[in-house]
Amino acid sequence: MMLQSRRGVALVLVLWIVIILGGISAGVVRSARTSTGIAANARAGVIARAAAESGIEALVAAIEDTLASFDDPAERRDWLNAFSMRTSADSFTLGDGRFLVTVVDVSARLDVNAATESALRTFFSQFTDPAEAAAIATAIRGRIDSGGATREVTPRPLTVTPIRSLEELRVAHLVPDAILEHAVQYLTVDGDGVINSRTASDTVLVAATGELRDEPSRLLLISRGWVSGHPLTSEIQAVYALTGNRLVFSHWRERSL
């Protein structure tokens, strides 16, 4: 009788051990899968960024080579004006990565940082009433000219801090969402105050107060890189000034999508 009791206890212990080992095995499998997933995401992120950066470099080289091929300044100007605001029809393969590039004529938009309060007021009055347009213009210039900080009672030297992205206009509550939704396509934070009269819309030209040219002075190059079959996408936005047939780097920003 005692022997049967001991066998019963042993059987219960064995069953518990099997259950515990099964739980440990399942945990190990889940951990391995998690580690594999993390490694795969990290690899995809590195490849995506490298592809995006390669897209920028390839686009710069292609633009400079094309500009150097023109003997007629008018043909060069026409090509620049037609080339801007274009996205490549197909993506390009680079090893395991792919990239897609877009060119934006920054000079076709009103630069938020370079525009005067009067210019901003004129611009936003096309989307709202004069009083709200004036309030928006004052808020934007106030943020830029005060360094984004609250004004102090004690006078202090003027600190100019440019707005780095159009999203900041929304996040900082400088422009109501309903207005920004319609206005954002005409704005930039990457310009130099020059307006391209050949490509700028009437909405921009009516508020233009800076220098007018008949070709871009700056280009925004956008490149998105990814790994086929993976959802992660890396985007690089690089701004270049046009100096003769050369693109001179100004600044860039990047993000994961």
Structure, explained:
The radius of gyration is 28 Å and the shape is flat. It is built from seven helices and ten strands. The protein has two domains: 44-109 and 215-256, Pantoate--beta-alanine Ligase, Chain: A,domain 2 (2-Layer Sandwich), CATH 3.30.1300; 112-186, no CATH class. Helix content is 46%, strand content 21%. The strands form three sheets. Strands 1, 2, 3, 8, 9 and 10 form a six-stranded antiparallel β-sheet that branches. It has a two-stranded parallel sheet with strand order 4-5. The protein has 257 residues and is of the alpha+beta class.
Q: Terminal Cα separation, in Å?
A: 70 Å
Q: How much of the sequence is in beta strands?
A: 15-25%
Biggest pleated sheet? 6 strands, antiparallel
Helix and strand succession?
A: HHEEEEHHHHEEHEEEE
From the 3D structure, determine the CATH topology of the largest domain.
Pantoate--beta-alanine Ligase, Chain: A,domain 2
The computed structural class is alpha+beta
What's the structural domain tally? 2
- Shape descriptor reads flat
CATH hierarchy class name of the largest domain: Alpha Beta
**Number of helical elements:** 7
- The oligomerization state is single chain
- What's the average pLDDT? 85
Low-confidence stretches: 148-157
Tally the beta strands.
10
Q: State Rg.
A: 28 Å
Reported CATH architecture of the largest domain:
2-Layer Sandwich
Fraction of helical residues: 40-55%
